[in-house]
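User: I'm putting together notes for a lab meeting next week and I want to include a structural view of one of the chains we've been expressing. I don't have a solved structure, so I'd like a prediction I can at least talk through. The sequence is below, exactly as it appears in our construct file.
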Amino acid sequence: MNQLDATFAALADPTRRAILARLIQGEASVMELAEPFAMSQPSISKHLKVLENAGLISRGRDAQRRPCRLEAKPLAEANEWLERYRKIWEGNFQRLDALLGALQAQKPTGQSEQ
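Assistant: Thanks for the context. Below is the predicted structure for the 114-residue chain, given as structure tokens.
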């Protein structure tokens, strides 16, 4: 699986997105990350493994604690890929706006003014 596929696969799950949102605030332990969820620590660990395999997080070692931290590079690559499509759609919408404006500016033919 290439990096972009792994990133989007990891982001497909709302729990993993919530974990990433929490890590924006700074590193956290597995127990800290598990706190807001109604799931076991092993379940959270499975989500963390998916995020780690996708390169979205890394785990350090601080004595007994293994803090998780956000890794921005894969998200930046996904954003770059999405940005190309955003520009295409933005151009399409601008052309549609121009067409609608031109159509509205034309006076309807065959109708008498009152």
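A couple of points you could mention at the meeting. The chain is about 60% helix and 5% strand. The first helix runs from residue 3 to 11.

User: Perfect, that's what I needed.
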